[in-house]
Amino acid sequence: MKLGKTSPSLSTRLLRKGALVEETYRVFAHWKLGASLSENLERIRETNPLGAKNQSWLREVTATLSSRFAQGDSIEPLVILAKAQYPLEHWRFFLLWHFGSTDGLFCRFVEEFLFRQRLESIAAFDTEAVAPFVAEIDRERILGAPLTSYGRVRLARDLLRMAAAFGLVTDQLRRRFTHVAIPDNAFLYGLYSLNAEIPSVSRAVESPRWRMFLLGSADVERELLNLHQFRRLRYEQAGTIRELSLPYDSLPEFARSLTT
Q: What CATH number belongs to 184-257?
C-alpha cells in the first residue's frame, strides 16, 4: 500500500493516544495489503483482532491509526513483517523509523531535543527540561490555539512517554537514556527507506532522519562500515566520494527477506 507523501501530522492527539506499538503490530498482522486504509480499519472494528474489551477503546485505536497512517511512508513493509510475526521487540524500531514520516511533533522532539541531549552527554532529564522545546513549539503557533500552562506540561509528558514506549528513555519521572542498541535490521530498514528517496549516498548518510534512532552522520558511517565488513551491503568511501550497493532493490523486498 502506497500512501501519499505529505508532511508529518503536527497533532497533539497522536501524542495523547501514544505510540500504540503492540496494538499497531496486532492490527497490521491482520492487514490486507490489497485493501484501502479505511477498508482495513472497518474490518478491524468488525472483527476485533485486538481482543479489545469494549468498542470504545477499539474505536479509539482505529481512529488513531487512521489519523497516523493517512500520511507518510508506505506501511507495506511494516505489514509484511507483522504478518510474518517478526519479533515485536525488534519490529518496534521499524515503526519508530516510520514515525519520522507521520508524527511531526514527536519527530521534532527526537531530532531537536533528545538528539541534542545525547550529543551533550546529558545523562538525566525530566519534564521541566522539555519546557523550552515545548515553549518554542507554542510560539510558532503550529498547534492552532495557544497552549495553557497545563497543556505545556502535558505535551512535555506525552513526548517523553512516547520516547519511553520505543525504549529510547527510561519509563520513570527522572528520564535517562537507555542506550538501546539499534538492531542491524532496523538500521538497514532506514537505509533502504532513504535509498528510495535520496539518490545521493552522502545526503542519505547525513539525513536528519537518522536522529529518530539517535544517530548522527558519524554513527551512520560506522554502522555502514560494520555492515560492509559482514557483507550485508557494499560501502566504500574515498575522500568525499561515497558508494553504496544494497542487495535488494526496495524496502518491501528487504522486508520479505527477513521473513524467510
A: 1.10.10
